[in-house]
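Researcher: Here's the sequence for the chain we discussed earlier.
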Amino acid sequence: MTTPAPVASNPVLRMTLIVGGIVNAVIAVIAGVVGYLIASQDGMWSAVVGVLFGFVFLAITAASILIANRWNGTDLYATLFFAIVLGGWLVKFVIFLVGFFLIKDQPWLNSQVFYVALVVTVLASLIVDVVVMQKMRIPIEIALPETLEEAGEQNDTPHDSKREEIDGSDSPSNDPK
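Model: Thanks. This is the structure I predict for it:
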């Protein structure tokens, strides 16, 4: 049995997680300071929790795809891939609902600071995804023919040996009658 080639998206997803983690850590510090200036300690914690919510959603998607790609080359790869990724989205949905229901009535939560921190984190995650995709070089492996004969054999254009001969009797007349 041959070892399947690594999935080309794995380095992109890993880099997204690494850069996303760094960017979200920076956002957490900045949002925490701004939240503290706006609403003291409650604002700081609201901002940090908003950033954590945003990062968890980024991380679950990327991690579920990385986990699913481990079955690349197996017969059940497509089934497992979609099951794991859709399961990750379901987990994300449950975390979203449970998390919001748990924190919505907390006395320390400043909802405006939380919301702004969450939106900034989501926007930053989208920017990270775009920048990482633009900077990554994903190799495309194409087997090229080594000789001209192989290239002719692999050519997709049909080579019909029975070419139609054009003579005056088979072609329609151009008389304007």
